[in-house]
Amino acid sequence: MANDIVNISTLLEELANSPANDREAVIDALPPELKKELSEGVFNVVKEQKWLPNTGPQSDAYFSKADILLYGGSGGAGKSDLGLGLAFNEHERSLILRRKYVNLSGLTERAIKINGTRDGFNGGAPPLLRSQNGKYIQFAGSQHLGDEEDWQGIPFDLKIFDETVQFLESQVRFHLGWVRSTTPGQRQRVLMPTNPPIDASGDWIIGFFRPWLDLTHPNPAKHGELRWFATAPDGIDVEVEGPEPIQFPGAKNPTQPKSRSFIPGMLSDNPYLVDSGYQATLDSLPEPLRSAVRDGNFMASRADDAMQIIPMAWIIEAQDRWKPDGWKNLEMTACALDMGAGGDETVLTFRHGGWFGPQDGLTGDDARDESHAMSMVIRRRKDHCPIAVDVGGGWGGSTTLLFKENGIDFSPFNGGARAPGKTRDGHLGFVNKRAWAYWTMREELDPNQEGGSPIALPPDPQLRADLAAVRWKSTTRGIQVEAKDDIIKRVGRSPNRGDSAVMCLAEGARAALKRMATRMLGGRTPKVIKMERGRR
Questions:
Q1: What is the fold of 64-294?
Q2: What residue spans of 418-524 are helical by DSSP H?
Q3: Hey, where are the domains in the chain?
Q4: Other Cβ atoms closer than 10 A to 242
Q5: Interior/surface letters 56-68, b for 16+ CB within 10 angstroms, e for the rest
Q6: What CA–CA distance (Å, rounded) separates 159 from 263?
Q7: Is the pLDDT at 217 greater than 70, yes or no?
Q8: CATH fold for domain 312-520
Q9: Helices (H), 411-495
Q10: In this predicted model, what pLDDT tens digit does every residue of 454-483 receive, in sequence order?
C-alpha cells in the first residue's frame, strides 16, 4: 500500500501542477478500473490529512517547489488557509506571523477547527498549537521593527508572513536567515500569502518578486515559474540561472541560491466562498482596497498618501519615458553622492539633462569606505560635471576632503541648511534644503507643466518606492519634508536612492549654474545664484 500511496501522491501532484482543463482530460481518459483504483488511492492518501487544497491555484501553490512563494492577490483566495494546511500536513515546526498581534485570532480559531479540538492549544502570548498529528505551530506578531529579533536562532522549517506587505522588508529578510530544520529530508520553505500593497510601505514586494510583478522587467516570469536568487555579500539580490552554488568575489564560501515564485489566486478559485456573497462585499470596497483585495492588482492597487510629496503616477510616467540610450548627444550634467549612514547603502546618481542613468550603490563595509565611494565617482563621472555630496550628519565630510585633494569639483549638500529658493509659483518657501530638493523633483516631474515633464528615470523599483515614500506638510516656516529617521521607522529602510536622485536634480542644477556663472565672471565666484526654473 505504501507504494500505491507514493504513486497516487505523485499523480495528484502532477494533476495539481497541470492546467485545470488538462486535469479533466487526463482523468476522463483513464480506463474505468483505473479510475476506481485512483479513487481508492485518493482516499488512502487523504484520509490522514488534516487539510486538503482546492483544485486550481491553491493546489498549485501547495505543491510548488519554490523556496519562497508569493501566493494570492485577491481576497477570498484561501491564502491563510493554505499556510495552515501546509503547517498541518507538510511541516514539523511552523511559525505563522501577522504584523499585529491582535490580528492572530482568526488564524488561531481556524487552526483549532482544522485540528478538530482545542486540545494542544495554548492561547498565551504568543499562541502555540501542538496538533493531534504531532505538528508544532507557533503564532506571533511582529508589530515593531526589532520584534523579529526575538526569533533569532529558533529553527522553523516553515515560516508564513500572513498579509506579507504589512511587514517591513527588513523584518522579512531577517526571518529568511533562520529557516532551517535538523530533521533529514524535511523541506524548508517560506510562504507569503498577501493582498497587494495599498501604500508605499509595502512597495518592497514589487522589487522582491520583480520578474512577476514589475511591468518594466526585461524578462518577465510566468505564474508558478521558478526563478533563482542569491544574496551577494553586500546584501543585494542577484538573479542567477539555477540552484548551483555561486561564488561571489571576496566571499569565503559559495552562496546557495533560493528559488522564488508567484502564483495568483482569486475569489473565483475558492468553491467555499464563490457563492457566499463575499464578491458583493469586495465590489463595495473603496479604492484602492477594491483594486488590491478584489482584483489582486499589485501594480495599480496602491493609493498615494494624502501628504505624499511626489505622486506615484508621475514617477511611473517618468520611468516609462526612460530609454537606455537617452543620454546620447547630451553631456553629463551632474552627479550626486548620498553617503550611507550606519548600514545604509551609499548611492551615486548621474544624469544627462533630464535623463537619469541607472544608480550605482555600495553596501556593507564598502558603503562606509570613502575611498570606495570616490572610486565609484571617478569611474562614472564624465565631462567634468559637478558632483553634489550629502554632508548632513557628518557622513560625507571625509569624502569631500578626498575630493578636494584630488581636485574634483563638488558641491556640499546639507539637507538641514537654509533653502535657496521658493516654489515655482513663488508662493511658498521651504523649511530647509531637503524640502527644497524634493519639491524641485516634484515640480520637474509634473506632467501638467508646459511641454510636459523632461525627466526620465531608470525603471528601478527601489528608486520608485523611495521617491513615493516621502511625505510633507505645510508649516508657518514653509514646506517641511518628513525626517529621514521618521521614514525609516515607517517603512523600515532609508530612502537613499530617492535622496540621491533629488540631490542630483536640485543641487546638481544649482552647482552647474554656479560653475557656468563662475566661468562667465572670469573665475570669480558669484555671490548669489538663483535657480532657473524649468529645464535643467
A1: Rossmann fold (3.40.50)
A2: 433-445, 461-469, 484-491, 496-520
A3: 2-46, 64-294, 312-520
A4: 10
A5: bbbbbbbbbebbb
A6: 17
A7: no
A8: Nucleotidyltransferase; domain 5 (3.30.420)
A9: 433-445, 461-469, 484-491
A10: 999 998 888 988 998 899 999 999 999 999
